[in-house]
Structures are given as structure tokens and as C-alpha cells.
Amino acid sequence: MNALIYALLAVGTVFNGLGALALIRFPDVYTRIHGATKCTTFGSIFSLLGVAVYGIWQGGGMGGTMAVRAFLALIFLLLTNPTGSHALARAAHRSGIKPFRAVVDRLEEKK
Amino acid sequence: MSVVVRTIARMLVPVGLVFGAYVIMHGHLTPGGGFQGGAVAASALALILVSFSAKELKPVKGLLSALESTGGVAFVVFAFLGIGFTFFANAIAGMGGLFGQPVDYGPNPGYLNTSGTLPLMNWAVGLKVLAGLGSVVLLFALFGEGEDDR
Amino acid sequence: MIVELGFGAAAVALLAFALVCTIRLAVGPTAADRAVALDTINTLVVATMVVVGAAFRLVVLMDVALVYALLSYVGTLYIARYLEGGSW
Amino acid sequence: MTVWAILQVLVLVFTVVSAALAVWLRDLLAAALALGAVGLFLSLAFYLLLAPDVAIAQAGIGAALTTAIFILAIRKTRRREEEE
Amino acid sequence: MRRVAQWTATAVLAFAVYLVLATFTGPWGLWAPDELLAGLVIALVVALATGMFVWARGDWRVLQPKRWLLFLVYILGPFPLAMAKANLDVAWRVITGKIRPGIVKFNPNLKTDLGRTFLANSITLTPGTLTVDVDEGTGDFYVHWINVTNESPTPEDVCGPFPSWARRVAE
Amino acid sequence: MTRWLRLAAFLVVAGALLLVAGQIRRFGEPRLAEMDLYFNRYSQDEVAANNAVTAIVFDYRGYDTLGEATVLFAAVVGVALILRKVKK
């Protein structure tokens, strides 16, 4: 069981790091939002799942509560993270930031 | 804001209020208490403010100021309960019955009716902080919006 | 203090990634870049908090992570609404 | 050096760096963002010191309400800090 | 009548949230009676305060258990798969730096707020796409696509089976 | 000139603080620990609360909380006073 927990933690850490790397490497706001949101949400899911599995299997008396808390944090992150990214992307477009080397921009044509 | 943000805010505002109430309610058992829970619930009000418009919350302003005064007065009244001993003494703790079974040593969640006046004071301070911080954010948002009377 | 070393190591790694995001927070050319960096740091710190809570084996600590997961989004929304401009 | 000490040192370094950013940046919106990061890491520092009460208070105030009030104030005034 | 129904539904949901927060407090991993009573009172108060504002038009259909089952299938089956694909995709693009971005428009024919929200969040978390704006009048989605293959795509080009899932679950 | 003066002042203050930081006791071992030990030992019996922090905030140090509530009230009154509508 320890192997499973450590594997989950490792996968989560790797994907979180990928998100941070994407934040540095991509050229403009929209692509950065892509990388940051997808990777950190996915990585955090794995990390929190690792904690939940640990709580269920080895947590002792309070382990169940630990698992429930981890799942709740997971649900909140899944609800709020994409919404915040959407709000930021929309705000960036409205404040006049052009997509980097865009081949097509239908939202600009609409205005 | 867009339709996505508004729908998620509709879902999360009751959750935030319930979570704030949970933090206040368990102030004497787990970390948290009146101030913290009130801040969480006030953040739910701030979420309404930002997802919809400030005018949505304008009718609540009188209620908020009433709640703040009520919380302050209730806090002092609960403090006066211990006047036989000292001010703020927890007179009814461990009395048995409705208020206050004595507790075991160590964390034991789930026994809500322990510790006498503490939960009541938590609720008073929680309502006060909720109303105070909420009305501060509301006043900031309403300032300079149109010519109507505030 | 730390009971489980694996969880502690994961927490250190997650915080090190937050350092990378702090660089973007410092240099980001536009305010939107900085807001994205702050959002990413929020998610990373929530994950760190839960992992550290498991490492300490203290479940009472995890309420803090819940508060952050629920509320960090409100700050992001305020920034987005300011950047959008126009009347509220 | 235990893992706990490393975590604390990292968090303190982050707090100081974010606070310096909040002073250094001329764009007041960016400064408010950096201040949000300060609150975040301060809350994590309290968390690592096993003071969850203070950490919840810092999280509830610093995550949403401080940012909200700062940005509302910036909206009513000016965004750029003036040169001396 | 409609208002009473709204309050009741909100109170039940708020009570459920409180129960999830307060698990493992009583004997045998259940809830202590104190917790049940406190949760009931809190849920009623919260429902009175926010009940009329939580429910938009057309949200009632979400309360059918059949849709909950479909949502469970969705959250366990296609959604994690798509997220995994999305992350590998982002990893590849981070390393190679190959992007061909653009903002495209398509219309998935969703009517309710909840359906649109569901689809928008699914799009944001799945491969190569990010919802930038949703037109509330016509229901057009404006999506930032990291690898544009077709400048006027159909919904299936951009996000695969998700519009039909959104219609089945949330509309 | 003022710049060098400021730098010198900064260095002096920082050096003094570092000097003091070398002298303080280790974290978690204060010199006067009587009150801590008292609270840890007796707060659960006297106040019957599991969370000792709440017991201190609302019972042993109740006056502080009263002052805190007054400060919050004063802040709200100040905001309401400044942001009111001015009648011409």
C-alpha cells in the first residue's frame, strides 16, 4: 500500500511541476493559463488522492476524517480552478491582450 | 461576470455560508471560532458582490448593521453571565443538562453542548464579524455608484 | 515533528514549484500574468497544506486547506473583474 | 536539518520575497497581488508552526477580503503609483 | 409554492454539505445527535437567506437521480481520461514548444446556465482548449485552442463527446 | 548622499537585529512558561473546552476580545463615515 501512496504523490508532484514549468515557458497569457490550470489541477488531484488513501489505510482513528477533508478540498478545487481561469482569460481578452501568433481570433471579429 | 462565474457562485455561496457556520459552531472543539468563521461567511458575501452587482446586496445593508449591534450586545450580555465570580468567567460550564457537560482530556469532536458560554460567545462574535466585514466590503463597492441614496 | 518522510519530501517539492511561480509573479509583463501566477500558487499551497497535514498526522490542520480552496477563488475573481474594466 | 526546518525556511524566504515585491512594484494592482501572496505564505507559516486558529484567520482575511478591499479602493482611485 | 420548493431543496443540500463536513463525530462513524440538530438549524437559516437566489431557470432537472448516476459515470470514466490526455499534451508542448493558437467559435446548442457551465469547465480542463467567453444570447462558445486544425470547427472537432454529455447530465 | 545614509541606517538596524537574533532562546522554549503550563494543564477542566485557544480568547483573556470587537466596530463606523453620501 505504501508503494501506491508514494506513486500517487510522485505523479502529483511531477504534474504540479509541469504546471509551474508551463507558467515559465509559454509565450503569452492564454497558453500560460492552459498549462497552469490543467497541470496543477490534475497534479493536485493525485496528491490529495494520495492523502485520502493514506488516511483510509493507515490514518488510525482520525483517518476517515482526513480522507473526507482531502476529498472536499478536491471537489472545491475542481469547481473553482477552471472557473477562475475562465474569468482570467476573459478579463485578459477584454483588457486588450492579443493571443500570441494567433491564426484566427473569432472573438476579436465579433466586436 | 460571465454566466459560468455566476452559476458557480450560486453553487458556492450556500457552501461558504454553511462552512462559516461550521467553523463557528465547532469553535470550542476544533481550530476556528467566531472571528474565523465570520471572515469565511463574509467572503461568501464578497463572492456575491463580485459575481453579480453590488445592487443585489443593497437591501441587506440595514440587516447587516442590525446584526452587528446584536452581536456586540449579545457578547457583553454573555460576559455578564459570570458576574457572580468575575466578568467573563464561564459560570455555566460543566453544570450539566443543556449547557456544558464536562469534557474528557484530549480532542473529542461531536460533543457540541460542552463548555458553557463559549459557543454562545462564538456565535455573537461570529455574527458581529460577518456583519462588520461584509458591510465594509459592501460600502466600498457601493461608493460612487450612481446618484441614488445610500 | 514530521511523521511521514515521503509526505514531507512531496511538500518541499511543491513549495519549490511555488518558487518558480513567484518568478512569474515578479517578472510577468502584464497584470494578467501575475494573476495567473497567484492562482497557480494558490493551488500549489492548498496541495502543500493537505500533504503537510497528512505528514503531521493531524487532521485538525486540514480545515485551513479547505478555507483556502474555497476562498482563494474570490480574490482571483476580483482581479479579473477589475481587469475587465467597464462598470460593475 | 529536518524536513520541517527546510519547509519553514522556504516559507519564510517566500514571505520576505513577496513582501519585497509588494514594496518594489510600481503598479498598484501588481502590488496588491504580491500582498495576496504574502498573506498566503504567512498562513502557511502559521500552519507549519501548528497554529491552525491563526492560520484560518489569516486565510479568511488575507485570501479574499484584503484583496477585495484593495482592488475596490484601486478601482475608485488610480492604478499607477506616482513618481515622487 | 415555488418559493417553498426552492427553500426546501436548498435546505436539503446545505444539510448534506454540513453532514459531509461533520463526518465521523458520533458512534460507529456516524453523526452525533448534537451535530444533526445543529446542522438542521444552520441549513434552515442558510436556506432562508439564499434560497431564492440559488436556483436559476431550468436547474430543477438536475435533481433527478438518473442524472446523478450519469454524472458519476462521467466523472469516473471519460473525464479523467481526457484530463490525462490533456496533461500529456501540455507536457509535450512545454518541452517542444510547438503551438498554433487561435480563438475559435462554435455553438453546442445548450440552453440552460448549468449546462453551459458544465461544458465550459469541462472544456477548460481537457485537451488543448480554454473557454474564453460565452455569449449568453446565442450560446456561442469562444474557445482558445492551442492547436488550431480547422478555423470554423464543429463542436466535435474541439471537445469530442462533451457537448452530448453536458446535455445528458445537466440539461 | 541621502542614499548612502539610508543604506548605512539599514545596515545598522539589520545588524542589530541579527545580533539580537543570535541571543534569543530556541523556538518553543520561552523563559517564562508558567502561564503556558497552567493553560495546558487546567484549561480543559476549568472551561470545559477542547480547544484551549478558544478558552483563552473567550475566558481567560475576555477583555482583549471585547477590545477587539470594539476595534472592529470602530473600523466599520469609520468606513461608513468616510464613504457616506455628502449632502450638498
Q: Which parts of chain C are unreliable, with pLDDT below 50 for 5 consecutive residues or more?
A: none
User: Whole-number radius of gyration of chain C?
Assistant: 16 Å
Which blocks of ≥5 consecutive residues of chain F have pLDDT under 50? Answer: none
Distance from N terminus to C terminus of chain C (CA atoms, Å) equals 49 Å
Mean of residue pLDDT values of chain C: 86
Q: Radius of gyration of chain F, Cα only, in angstroms? A: 23 Å
Attribute tags:
heterohexamer; A: 111 residues; mainly alpha; 4 helices; 0% strand; D: mainly alpha
Question: How is the secondary structure organized here?
Answer:
The complex is a heterohexamer of chains A (111), B (150), C (88), D (84), E (171) and F (88).
Chain A: H1 2-25, H2 29-58, H3 63-94, H4 106-110
Helix pairs in contact in A: 1-2, 2-3
Chain B: H1 3-25, H2 34-51, H3 61-80, H4 118-142
Chain D: H1 3-24, H2 28-48, H3 52-76
Helix pairs in contact in D: 1-2, 2-3
Can you give a write-up of this model?
The complex is a heterohexamer of chains A (111), B (150), C (88), D (84), E (171) and F (88). Chain A is mainly α and 111 residues long. Helices cover 82% and strands 0% of the residues of chain A. In chain A, helix 1 (2-25) runs antiparallel to helix 2 and helix 2 (29-58) packs antiparallel against helix 3. The model of chain A has no long low-confidence stretch (mean pLDDT 84). Chain B has one domain (3-142). In chain B, helix 2 (34-51) packs parallel to helix 4 and helix 3 (61-80) packs antiparallel against helix 4. The longest helix of chain B has 25 residues, at 118-142. Chain B is elongated. Chain C is mainly α and 88 residues long. Chain C has one domain. Chain C is elongated and about 50 Å long. The relative contact order of chain C is 0.15. The mean pLDDT of chain C is 86. Chain F is built from four helices and no strands. Chain F is flat. The model of chain F has no long low-confidence stretch (mean pLDDT 84). The chains are: A mainly alpha (111), B mainly alpha (150), C mainly alpha (88), D mainly alpha (84), E mainly alpha (171), F mainly alpha (88). Chains in contact: A-B, A-C, A-E, B-C, B-D, B-E, B-F, C-D. Chain A binds chain B through residues 79-80, 83, 86-87, 90, and chain B through 1-2, 4-5, 8, 11-12.
